[in-house]
């Protein structure tokens, strides 16, 4: 019996580790920018190392630059989710994603766009390891908006 429970436990652990991140749109249903798909490779993310984030978005309008992004990253701890300040990875404000992302093809035309964002986490810190959730708020100056929540982001360190 104990052994079977142990196997179940092992299975749950494995199932948690292999899942992809989960995501949802947030904010208003009337938002102009919607997330259609998001995958993180590898997942769990291994730090330090490269990560590729594949994002498909749909926008019902031509987006005007600047495309401001507010990222809020929270780490799961024993007292609940705690906001991670803006370091290598963290809760940062990007005044214009267009200037950071050559593949974004700004100004973005109305329609579907798939963007592959290659990121390198160079921090060696073992403290990065853990489970995270993120929220990204997008806004252009004429108030075109988007909001997405990403759950179950998992980071391992290769130590
Ligand atoms: C999302 O992207 C992944 C990887 O690119 C792909 O396998 C999957 O089919 C996509 N899902 C949808 C709903 O487009
Ligand atoms: C986007 O801009 C193009 C010209 O660059 C225009 O033809 C099109 O109608 C615009 N679409 C929307 C939804 O405003
Ligand atoms: C990621 O997005 C790019 C488009 O920039 C696409 O060509 C590629 O197949 C995607 N990769 C995965 C793993 O989904
Ligand atoms: C994913 O995140 C949600 C919300 O934070 C949580 O309820 C759920 O248990 C998580 N799923 C896994 C597989 O960790």
TrEMBL record:
Q: Where is the signal peptide?
A: 1-19
Cellular component GO terms, alphabetical: cytoplasmic side of plasma membrane
Query: What GO annotations for molecular function exist for this entry?
Result: enzyme activator activity; lipid transporter activity
* Annotated ranges, domain MD-2-related lipid-recognition: 23-152
The record ties this protein, via SUPFAM superfamilies, to:
Ganglioside M2 (gm2) activator
The cross-references to InterPro entries, in alphabetical order and at most eight, read: GM2-AP, GM2-AP_sf, ML_dom
Q: What is this protein called?
A: MD-2-related lipid-recognition domain-containing protein
User: What is the source species?
Assistant: Rotaria socialis
Q: What is the lineage of its organism?
A: Eukaryota, Metazoa, Spiralia, Gnathifera, Rotifera
């Amino acid at each position: 019996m104990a052994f079977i429970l142990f196997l179940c436990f092992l299975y749950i652990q494995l199932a948690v580790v292999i899942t992809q991140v989960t995501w949802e749109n947030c904010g208003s249903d009337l938002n102009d920018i919607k997330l259609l798909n998001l995958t993180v490779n590898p997942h769990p993310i291994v730090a330090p190392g490269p990560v590729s984030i594949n994002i498909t978005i749909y926008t019902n309008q031509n987006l005007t630059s600047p495309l401001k992004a507010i990222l809020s990253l929270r780490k799961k701890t024993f007292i609940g989710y705690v906001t991670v300040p803006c370091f290598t990875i963290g809760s940062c404000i990007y005044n214009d994603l267009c200037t950071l992302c050559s593949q974004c093809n700004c100004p973005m035309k109305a329609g579907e766009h798939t963007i592959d964002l290659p990121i390198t986490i160079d921090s060696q810190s073992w403290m990065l390891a853990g489970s995270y959730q993120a929220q990204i708020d997008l806004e252009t100056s004429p108030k075109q908006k988007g909001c997405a929540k990403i759950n179950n982001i998992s980071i391992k360190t290769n130590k």
